[in-house]
Write a structure and sequence with these properties.
Helix content: 40-55%
Structural class: alpha+beta
Largest sheet: 4 strands, antiparallel
Order of helices and strands: HEEEEHEEEHHHHH
CATH topology of the largest domain: Serine Threonine Protein Phosphatase 5, Tetratricopeptide repeat
Oligomer: single chain
Shape: rod-shaped
Distance between the termini: 97 Å
Strand content: 15-25%
Length: 204
């Protein structure tokens, strides 16, 4: 009788821990990201809520995953999705805190918008002959956007208007080397090479 009682206590203790523990907690930065449960990476998944979320693991397994092994995906518009493979581990709680990365496509759009805004400001400064500040702004853009021919072309134009023809030629050459379809840079390069009687550089 005593043995049966002890076994009953052990069973009840195990069962209570199983029921009370095993919570899944998910937080993200930024918040309000959608949470999906998937069985495979190609599966559309089932949405179980948004971050921050706290839910019993038993509910996730029994109602959504239908398996002790599943993929949890956290996604939000404008950010790259985060995926992790989870396994039901008994009485252990699982806490996930995820920093979502900005989508590369969205970052590119934002970068281009910023570049365009800055180039408009440079053009405004050139119009009022504020060449010093225009060149300071272009120095920053050259560091941030080293592969954009338009930055070098505008810098060349600024040097040209401020009568620094040697630096103007150097940057027109740079602009053309970055983009061989930049006809304006090419024409100005030829013009200044002729003006200073300089031999064209190989490849640009």
């Amino acid at each position: 009788m005593k043995i049966k009682y002890m076994l009953l206590v052990l069973v009840l203790t195990f069962f209570s821990r199983w029921c009370l523990a095993e919570e899944l907690t998910v937080t993200s930065n930024p918040e309000q990201a959608d949470i999906f449960i998937k069985t495979t990476s190609n599966d559309a998944g089932v949405k179980i809520g948004r971050t921050p979320l706290k839910i019993p693991m038993s509910e996730v397994v029994n109602n959504f995953a239908k398996s002790n092994v599943f993929i949890l995906e956290i996604s939000k518009e404008g950010f790259d999705p985060y995926r992790v493979l989870l396994t039901r581990t008994g009485s252990n709680d699982i806490e996930l805190s995820v920093n979502l990365d900005v989508s590369k496509n969205l970052k590119l759009v934002k970068d281009v918008d910023y570049l365009v805004t800055q180039l408009f400001e440079v053009q405004r400064q050139i119009r009022i002959k504020d060449y010093v500040d225009a060149l300071k702004r272009l120095d920053i853009l050259e560091k941030d956007f080293p592969h954009y021919s338009v930055v070098y072309e505008l810098k060349a134009s600024t040097y040209y208007l401020s009568k620094d023809f040697s630096k103007a030629l150097s940057y027109y050459r740079k602009a053309f080397s970055m983009n061989s379809d930049n006809r304006d840079a090419y024409i100005m390069k030829l013009y200044l090479e002729e003006k200073f009687k300089l031999e064209p550089k190989t490849g640009g």
